[in-house]
Amino acid sequence: MLNKKTKKTVSFLASGRGSNFKAVADKIISGNIKATPGILICDKPDAAAFEKAAKLGIDSIFIDPKAFASKADYEKEMIKHFDRYKTDYIVAAGYMRILSDEIIQHYKNRIINIHPSLLPAFQGRDAQNQAIEYGVKITGCTTHFIDEGTDTGPIILQRAINVNKKDTVHTLADRILKEEHKILVKSIKLLCDGKIEVRGRHVIIH
Ligand code: GRF
């Protein structure tokens, strides 16, 4: 299915700071990831990700979910823009909305999420805080394909880190974030190099 000769186009979804977006976009621009940047779509007009996109010369657009009668209409608009850029893969880089089954099926195994825990532990919001509250000694981050559940899709890569006695949610989140950038970049590079195969829940890396 994956044609190694064709450069893939990678687009992005973000809601805020956009450091994961920037980590991947930097590597695309520098040629380290052999792909073409598509478009960044944000659901927040003031997302800091917009400035990062502008500096990198990557097109971006704010799509206001409130401007649409339904979630389906809002996502149709997103799909229109992604398709305009001939998007192969979409990176959900800190996108804080749940995608509907329709868009997930439309881009089956082509939307990649980064989550700040070792899934399936601590799904959903505030994963770093959930880890502190639970008292785990090890946590980390996970890249996975988005499926119809919340943070339940086939896992691509994971990286573990220790939780220290003195960690606050902020110090822990900072350390996890550094690892998020690494595994997200690596995952997208593997995908764009045609080295990833999905067999049911299992992601095989060739
Ligand atoms: C990251 O911790 C990511 O794992 C989570 O939201 C945060 C987004 O950070 N989904 P950024 O916008 O990529 O800097």
Strand order of the largest sheet: 3-2-1-4-5-6-7
In CATH terms, the superfamily is: Formyl transferase, N-terminal domain
DSSP summary: helix tally:
6
Distinct small-molecule ligands in the complex: 5-O-phosphono-beta-D-ribofuranosylamine
The low-confidence parts are none
Give the overall shape, derived from the CA principal axes. globular
Structural class: alpha/beta
Rounded to the nearest angstrom, the distance between the terminal CA atoms is 14 Å
The counted number of beta strands is 9
What would you say the CATH architecture is?
A: 3-Layer(aba) Sandwich
Mean pLDDT score: 96
Number of spatially distinct domains: 1
Q: Strand-and-helix sequence, N→C? A: EHEHEHEHEHEEHEE
Please state the CA-atom Rg, rounded to the nearest Å: 16 Å
Describe the structure.
The protein has six helices and nine strands. The chain has 206 residues and is an alpha/beta fold. It has a single domain, classed as Formyl transferase, N-terminal domain (Rossmann fold, 3-Layer(aba) Sandwich), CATH 3.40.50. A seven-stranded mixed sheet has the order 3-2-1-4-5-6-7, sandwiched between helices. A two-stranded antiparallel ribbon has the order 8-9. The protein is globular. The model has no long low-confidence stretch (mean pLDDT 96). The site of 5-O-phosphono-beta-D-ribofuranosylamine has 13 residues, from helix 1, strand 5 and helix 6.
